[in-house]
Design brief:
This protein is an all-alpha fold. It folds into two domains: about 50 residues, no CATH class; about 70 residues, no CATH class. It contains six helices and no strands. The protein is elongated. The chain starts with 16 loop residues before the first helix and ends in a 6-residue tail after the last helix. It comes from Sphingobacterium spiritivorum (Flavobacterium spiritivorum).
Amino acid sequence: MLAIPLSMICRKNHSNTDEERQAANRIFGLLPVEQGEELIAVWEEFEAGKTPEAKFARAMDRLEPLLQNSSNNGGTWNEPGVNYTKVYTKKSIIKEGAEKIWEYAETLINEGVKKGVLKKE
């Protein structure tokens, strides 16, 4: 989620929402009950990605690391197993929440390949 980086307390490259849910419950459980429940509801809305707000938030969530990698000689794009197809597929969610921003994101991905900081295959 944009304002609460649950990834900071989850394993790197985790791929399940259960781990994030546990982290969210732990963090939000520190708050007064009403506040915690409200933030859990917002987080669940974000995860579901159905509302326009959630779609936009998810788009921005995927855009931020793309911006970092494109401005940092590829950053994590240089890790084993990372290639154009993987990045393009993962970042294509941006299109659902912000079409114009997706056009820019697509340009950054393609530039990464042209510069040699993102492997084509």
